[in-house]
Amino acid sequence: MTTSSAPGKVYLFGEHAVVYGEPAVPCAIERRARVTVDRRDDDLLRVHADDLSLDGFTVEYSGASEGTPDVAVSESLIDAAMGYVDAAVEQARAAVAERRDDGPDPETIGFDITIESEIPLGAGLGSSAAVTVAGIDAATRELGVELSPEEVADRAFRAEYDVQDGEASRADTFCSAMGGAVWVEGDECRTIETPDLPIVVGFDGGAGDTGALVAGVRQLREEYGFAADTVEAIGDIVREGEQALQSGDVAELGRLMNFNHGLLEALGVSSRSLDRMVWAARDAGAEGAKLTGAGGGGCVVALDETDETGTALRFTPGCEEAFRAELDRDGVRAEP
Length: 336
Ligand code: PMV
Description:
Blueprint: E1 2-13, E2 25-39, E3 45-50, E4 58-61, H1 75-99, E5 111-117, H2 127-142, H3 149-163, H4 171-178, E6 181-185, E7 188-192, E8 199-203, H5 210-223, H6 225-247, H7 250-266, H8 272-283, E9 288-292, E10 299-303, H9 311-314, E11 321-324, E12 333-335
Bound molecules: (3R)-3-hydroxy-3-methyl-5-(phosphonooxy)pentanoic acid.
(3R)-3-hydroxy-3-methyl-5-(phosphonooxy)pentanoic acid binds at residues 15-16, 18-19, 124, 126, 169, 171-172, 210, 214, 293-294.
């Protein structure tokens, strides 16, 4: 039996603009998905998942594509999570086949898989990437093969690419595999030296439709030169942001996050609940706050030295959950 874990992430800067070749800086947070893999005697996959949301619920899901979840969460989210598990196992089997030419064909080996996640599903915190990354690491190690975090990141990207029909950037999977803050610009991915960051996350309990939001920005960008300029300006913020990260200037990071949020708002991807949480965080003394991920609903990220527990956000109308989640320097890792 082998267990690996991998962190979720927030975007400090650059979501949406990254779609047009601008850089983005996602950052791993101390909220993890743990995947335990136990080799079976047959070629079946059996998946058990507890607590896939912050509220805590139980889902028993047997078989990769059949089973009845007994849960208070939309079946499409469960189906999506199971799609990532399937794709992760496929990539793990391929990685093992590439490394070994003796022993049984990895395609014929099945697994019992248990997922435990502290990352809410579908909320822009990279839950699917964390499950995919941890799943690939655990399944390969269960079969006696050790991949580097970079190899896990690449395999996880391929898994997401397959599940999302080619609509995947390397941001989530690279960040989850490597930990810390990372720079992603097209296929160029690297880690960035960073100070500890006082990250607070607020979650409105919902999720935006990423495809529709990306399409909306694309249309604005085609229609208005100033929308295209806005996307480029976000790229400039990301470049400034990298310098602020390297010099450990949290006040400057906050200012740049505020600026980034304003531009995302202008591009039409914020929402009332996200804006409320952003303002509540600022009013409570945060250095800066912005939406994270596709927007439309979901999560905001704030930098706040003073708010130890995310209390300021928790009592904001529209905020369902808020928590402190420091930057996580560890990416994927083996768990005892
Ligand atoms: O909501 P998330 O974490 O899946 O992030 C979406 C980020 C976008 O830039 C809007 C889309 C993308 O594929 O990069």
